[in-house]
Amino acid sequence: MTRTIRFTKMHGAGNDYIYVDTGLYPISDPVRAAIEWSRCHTGIGSDGLVLIGRSPRADFSMRIFNADGSEAMMCGNATRCIGKYVYDNGLTDRTTVTLDTLSGIKVLRLHVEDGRVATVTVDMGAPADEPVDYDGRGARAMREQPVVAGGQTFTATAVSMGNPHLVIFTDDVESVPLPAVGPMLECHPLFPGRINVEFAEVRADGSIRMRVWERGSGITLACGTGACATAVAACLTHRAGRRSDIVMDGGRLTVEWDEATGHVYMTGGATKVFDGEMETDID
């Protein structure tokens, strides 16, 4: 038996997801839905599925499923899009919104122009070390340590932004064969839960060019938590200060690691692509 659900396709810096208000359209099998609907030729086409719900701890809640059905703890680009979704659709009239995620409650500051959300600043919380046993001496902070994959040695820093990231700085990010090395690093034995991978290049103007291989999705145009992890890694390794513009294939985000609070603040746009209806037999 089929039913019709309404969805909204949105993207943040090119990182595109399918958004469903579960208060109107409950989804009991989000894993199957994410896999089937994310397919470009037979579904809607996206990097994954985002479910917007209600929470007793915050104004709204978010669950996010990658295109392979795996559930992510956090997505910075999706949080910005949810801020735009709930305000532009009249679900709130507040310009400060709290969002319950698997990596904690995030605070969104909505920047409104002509009655619509133009950009969103997300308090991403404090970054943390992503402990790795990189030399057989036990899991601990990983800063500028070698990782061998596919016969190549990469110098990498691991950072957690609620989900794990491996940041690798290079002199020429455009030449990195990301389709080849991305999956090898994502599934490297050092990371039994798999990891997101960012290659980054600090440019002469101080901006950081970043390309990303996302855990469970592959190459995407942008990754909000990845941008934050890259900015933090650049600061930790003395390549940049506490504020960086991160330039990805899909656009630019501004990331500031506040010294007073220790929190990372990410600012960028959120774009509605279209509304649609989907006939599905998924409950």
Short précis:
This protein is an alpha+beta fold.
Whole-angstrom Rg: 18 Å
Low-confidence stretches: none
Mean pLDDT: 96
Report the portion of residues in β strands.
35-45%
Task: Tell me the number of strands.
Answer: 19
- How does the helix and strand content classify structurally? alpha+beta
Specify the oligomeric state: single chain
Shape: globular
Order of helices and strands: EEHEEEHEEEEEEEHEEEHEEEE
What characterizes the major β-sheet?
19 strands, mixed
Residues in helix, %: 10-25%
- First-to-last CA distance: 9 Å
Pathway: Amino-acid biosynthesis; L-lysine biosynthesis via DAP pathway; DL-2,6-diaminopimelate from LL-2,6-diaminopimelate: step 1/1
Subcellular location: Cytoplasm
InterPro entries: DAP_epimerase_AS (IPR018510), DAP_epimerase_DapF (IPR001653)
Function: Catalyzes the stereoinversion of LL-2,6-diaminopimelate (L,L-DAP) to meso-diaminopimelate (meso-DAP), a precursor of L-lysine and an essential component of the bacterial peptidoglycan.
Plain-language structure description:
- The structure is a single chain.
- The protein has a 19-stranded mixed β-sheet that branches.
- A hairpin with a 6-residue loop joins β17 and β18 (264-269).
- With 283 residues, the chain is an alpha+beta fold.
- The longest helix is centred in the first third of the chain and has 13 residues, at 76-88.
- The chain contains 4 helices and 19 strands.
- The protein has helices at 30-38, 76-88, 178-186, 224-236; strands at 3-12, 15-21, 48-53, 60-66, 71-72, 96-101, 104-113, 116-123, 128-129, 145-149, 152-160, 164-169, 196-202, 208-214, 218-220, 243-248, 251-257, 264-269, 271-280.
